[in-house]
Amino acid sequence: MIDQLYKDKRIDEACKKIAKGNDLWQDLKQELFIVLCEYDQAKLKEINDKKQIMFFIVRILLNFYNSKTSPFYKKYKHINDEVIDLKLIKHIEDDKPYSEELDRIELAFEIADLSWYERGIAKLYFKERSFRKLSAKLDIPTRSLCETMKDVKRKTHDIYIKITDN
């Protein structure tokens, strides 16, 4: 039954909707299925037989995503508490030469429509410069970090090109 649920597109859509389009939807789905695998299978079958399985799953997803005490929050969403300063690149220090290039990059990140999660991951990635180190430090899957940075690059690239052309 769990494998059928995993393939169910309604669960993907529910995860995307609850995560508000954020890349965390994939991690939310994974955490959901960890819980479902650990849950008493007889009770799960009973819920499914009553045709209440989607309600049950959506309730778990909402609790995971919105509750600060959930394991999902502790694993993935806690970055928001650590990232207060949203600037991704530090201002040029006095002893370094002025660079218009750095100004353009900084402006692109400021203008881009990045979520708190994307900004936080990007800021931490710029410090570490390694997905593996960052993954170990934050306990977030490396694949999730790579996907987030790919989105950050995609969102800032067009803005950077427009700034450069002007």
How are the SSEs placed, and which strands pair?
Blueprint: H1 2-7, H2 9-18, H3 24-38, H4 41-49, H5 53-66, H6 71-77, H7 79-82, H8 100-111, H9 116-128, H10 131-138, H11 142-165
Helix pairs in contact: 2-3, 2-5, 8-11, 9-11
N-to-C CA distance: 57 Å
The best one-word shape is elongated
Total tally of structural domains? 2
Oligomer: single chain
- The fraction of residues assigned to DSSP E strands is under 5%
Which structural class matches the secondary elements? mainly alpha
Q: What would the average pLDDT be, to the nearest integer?
A: 77
Largest sheet: none
Give the strand tally.
0
Keywords:
about 170 residues; mainly alpha; 2 domains; 11 helices; about 75% helix
Folded structure, characterized:
It is built from 11 helices and no strands. It is mainly alpha-helical. It has 2 domains: 2-76; 80-165, no CATH class. The longest helix has 24 residues, at 142-165. It is elongated and about 65 Å long. The N and C termini lie far apart (57 Å).
What's this entry about, in short?
The chain has 166 residues and is mainly α. Helix content is 73%, strand content 0%.
